[in-house]
């Protein structure tokens, strides 16, 4: 259905009208990068000009069908309307769009104006509003984000914004989000109740910006509501100090700076954890449930090229002593299988608190040691070298209960000691000289060791005084899954059902 009408004047002036309609239209290029199927559309236009220029307006309405223009795909469930009004030289060297308007049903509205010269944009101003952010994401954003951490999201909410360019490139942008929820379908993060007012300028001072949310989640760790004030200019973001409620405590950021874009994004911050509930944290991370509160200092965190790195030491005060993490690095933090590397130092931990937390029998005394070359892949342990022991000059009393001896014997040998069935079963606890346990994990095999012991064995517990009880390990090589099973059995035995 095509109608063309035109008229030529004596001085080369001309005027024309186009009316084109179609249904069930299909096309495809040789590479399959531009494909249309079952298209139903209407194209209308009015133009006039002379031998050097053309002026007029066009309106295209797509009412149905499927359209693929690599990488964008549209299944026209709602009418798509595009309107243009402007003028151009017939040589294509310069032109101006007086009015541009794009509507996709009631979900998306975009309008603007601009001009170009010799194939380069000289000025462009766009403004728009979105009543359904999920539609905009699937239609225009997701195809550009394939392979990134943002390529599989679910969004609800609405927004509006503006964007401008000049002859030097992007000049300014504004974005407002209202009543927005963002959820990563891979379960890595989520934000509810997101509200933002973002103002960016390429040059010169920008207006203040802010981001707020009702609650958020990073993997299984939940964050409370917060409001963040920031400045956006060029490729730099400067965030004012802020705090986020975290598992009964708070996470404080002293400063945050981001520079660069995309794969070249760099960030730097300092942070502090205050009174975080260890029980809630361990449940969120799938750890054995820890007791108490966590305070920690993260003096400097840096992010670059997908790599998160802690400069200095992360110091955590818990179990009456300190746990110091050094050399912490997370590769591909939001990827499918993040890789974590670190070394850990244990200083003067109270074994009474520790054994109570992990449901061993009661042990009194102190514990120190190191975990070197710790490596997790996809948050699962892949390798480490652990060396745990009693401090040489421990000031705490050294006592170990009968059940703790059974538990540690089972850990080192795979079978319980059966101590309660002997005459020693009348004693509730025993004195010991020292504890020692070494575990070396590589892949699916664990190598066990302790202090040098008799007949090729190794001491896990070296007794003292009478009656003396030693825990001697004989198994040195064990499947990691079997060692984990022994640890789980120790915890299960402590459960009391009433």
Note down, in words, how this protein is organized.
It is a single chain. The protein contains 5 helices and 35 strands. The protein has a 35-stranded mixed beta sheet that branches. The model is unreliable at 416-421 and 491-498 (pLDDT under 50). It is mainly beta and 498 residues long. The protein is elongated, with a radius of gyration of 34 Å. Strand 30 and strand 31 form a beta hairpin.
From the spread of the alpha carbons, the general shape counts as elongated
Beta strand %? over 45%
Ranges where pLDDT stays below 50 over 5 or more residues in a row are 416-421, 491-498
Helix % is 10-25%
Number of helices: 5
Biggest sheet overview: 35 strands, mixed
Number of strands: 35
Radius of gyration: 34 Å
List keywords for this structure.
35-stranded mixed β-sheet, 35 strands, disordered C terminus, mainly beta, single chain, 498 residues
Short description:
With 498 residues, the chain is mainly beta. The protein has helices at 133-141, 278-285, 351-357, 402-413, 480-493, and strands spanning 2-8, 14-28, 34-49, 53-69, 72-75, 80-89, 94-104, 108-117, 120-130, 153-166, 169-184, 189-201, 209-213, 215-218, 221-223, 226-233, 236-239, 242-246, 249-259, 266-277, 293-304, 307-311, 313-318, 321-331, 339-350, 363-364, 366-377, 380-389, 399-401, 429-442, 445-449, 451-452, 458-463, 471-473, 477-479.
Give the SSE layout.
Blueprint: E1 2-8, E2 14-28, E3 34-49, E4 53-69, E5 72-75, E6 80-89, E7 94-104, E8 108-117, E9 120-130, H1 133-141, E10 153-166, E11 169-184, E12 189-201, E13 209-213, E14 215-218, E15 221-223, E16 226-233, E17 236-239, E18 242-246, E19 249-259, E20 266-277, H2 278-285, E21 293-304, E22 307-311, E23 313-318, E24 321-331, E25 339-350, H3 351-357, E26 363-364, E27 366-377, E28 380-389, E29 399-401, H4 402-413, E30 429-442, E31 445-449, E32 451-452, E33 458-463, E34 471-473, E35 477-479, H5 480-493
